[in-house]
Amino acid sequence: MDRLLQSVQIRINEKLFLKDPESSDLGRKIIEISIQMINEIGFENFTFKKLGMQIGSNESSIYRYFENKHKLLLYLTSWYWGWMEYQLVFATNSIKNPKEKLLKSILIITREVKEDSSFSHINEVLLNKIVINEYSKSYLTKEVDTENKEGFYAIYKRLVGRLAEMISEVDEEYEYSTSLASTILENGLHQHYLKEHFPSLTDCTNKITPTQYLTHLVFNILNNTIDE
Amino acid sequence: MDRLLQSVQIRINEKLFLKDPESSDLGRKIIEISIQMINEIGFENFTFKKLGMQIGSNESSIYRYFENKHKLLLYLTSWYWGWMEYQLVFATNSIKNPKEKLLKSILIITREVKEDSSFSHINEVLLNKIVINEYSKSYLTKEVDTENKEGFYAIYKRLVGRLAEMISEVDEEYEYSTSLASTILENGLHQHYLKEHFPSLTDCTNKITPTQYLTHLVFNILNNTIDE
DNA sequence: CAAATATAATAGTAATACTATCATAATATA
DNA sequence: TATATTATGATAGTATTACTATTATATTTG
To answer: Does the pLDDT of residue B117 top 60, yes or no?
Structure first.
């Protein structure tokens, strides 16, 4: 990715933290190491106590940044989707042709992240893995409706909206652009997960990517409607 | 559903329980009430202690049936997929026409369960909701690979396999039958969830069902291929 | 240099996720 | 019917989690 991201900051809902982790060394360390740890031991086994030990800091200090680990997960995944949105807009902005634009967007959204921008303390490769493994847990909760009202999923929703719009621009007759957009986002992650843990449940392999599968799917649906 | 289910038992992997809950009153009560409770308070807030209090039984007695709540969730969701498979096979067995067969299968798999068979202690309406809200949590864990080897996801995998075969029978040229099958299963649940909690992320409503969306999607992909 | 602020250290609480032990109730078998 | 077996219940106990509160000590800023 380009260097622009160095100076561009991704704006996260302020209710997700008590103190902005971007505002101090400790805060950035919390983000950096929590990404490593959640990726390694999984969100369930991850605790602020363990994080404190790894950082060489204190549990209570971490609690001054984040109320709990659920909010931290929401922070990290929001950052990820914000980063994704930035790339999407940046890469497709100049593309006039709607099909080409959608094609590019699907690529950006469903590809495996393989390179860390290595400018910031945020490792995007690991964060991509975390999103694949843990994102669902951030909304499959009893608190989802109140948290949705608080705007905790705003960036993700905006991203789905953008994609849905691009779909409509390719085929304005298609009636399910929003559902299809959410399917691309969500099933993109899911196919990556299946590839890794349930290879018998997907055709995706090292040669066939989720991007190929979903691109083929989308472009065979659009401008191509037979009614049942 | 027909009365056959009264006598048909769904076979669950024996490693999922310490003592078969179908073998006693207490066991059946555990299943019955845990379905109600998980549906009400969510899997995270659900504990064996609370379950014991509701049943009027003892925490330690429940631990004699299930090692932990994760295994109980695997038991419940396995039962659900086994029940789904039974309905699928039963309802499509006699259908010769591949398209008709696939159409029926997608309906069965993606529809909202609205009627409890009310023969057994298992409430399928609630169980369907639990699967929508909690199924991902049963495999998005660090233990997924060992548990997969133990066969804990066998029924679900068999179901995806059956659906993939039906897809191939409609269009043997289609290269992503397995991925598409897993997409139908998983995204079917997801669209139901979105409909309930993120209506802006789906076109599904009370009038447009996930079944309609996915049926349209599948039949516009098959026998209809344009290559990129 | 003083004041303000951030972090660290320690302690403490309630709940969770169990394990272990022993008592009692229900059932099966001799 | 007495006895052995098995199932369940009651109680206690442990380690960990998910915090909150307090006080001490750095570090930064005015």
So the answer is: yes
CA–CA min distance A194, chain B (Å): 9
The stretch B36-54 carries a mean pLDDT of: 97
Q: Domains of chain A (ranges plus CATH)?
A: 16-221 (1.10.357.10)
Report protein residues in contact with nucleic acid strand C, where contact means CB under 7 Å. Answer: A 19, 24-27, 56-61, 64; B 45, 47-50, 59-60, 63, 67-70
Confidence (pLDDT) at A5 = 56
Q: What is the pLDDT of residues A173-184, one digit of tens each?
A: 999 999 999 999
The spacing between the Cα labelled CA in A34 and the C1' in D25, in angstroms, equals: 26
The residue-averaged pLDDT of A7-25 equals: 91
CA A97 to CA A170: how far, in whole Å? 9
Whether A176 CB is under 7 Å from strand D = no
**Quick check: A221 and B225 CB within 8 A?**
no
- pLDDT value, residue A117: 79
Closest-CA residue of chain A to B144: A197
Residue B190 to residue A191, Cβ atoms within 8 A? no
- Nearest residue by alpha-carbon distance to C1' of C21: B60
Mean pLDDT along residues B74-101 = 96
Q: Is A147 on the interface with B (CB under 8 A)?
A: no
* pLDDT interval class at A120 (50, 70, 90): confident
Q: B170, B171, B183, B195: best mutation site toward chain A, by most A Cβ within 10 Å? A: B183
Strand D near-CB residues (< 7 Å), B 17-36: 19, 24-27
Does the pLDDT at position A42 exceed 50? Answer: yes
d(CA B76, CA B90): 21
Q: How confident is the model at residue B5 (pLDDT cuts 50, 70, 90)?
A: low
State whether B228 and A216 contact (CB < 8 Å).
Answer: yes
Give me the mean pLDDT over the B10-30 stretch.
95
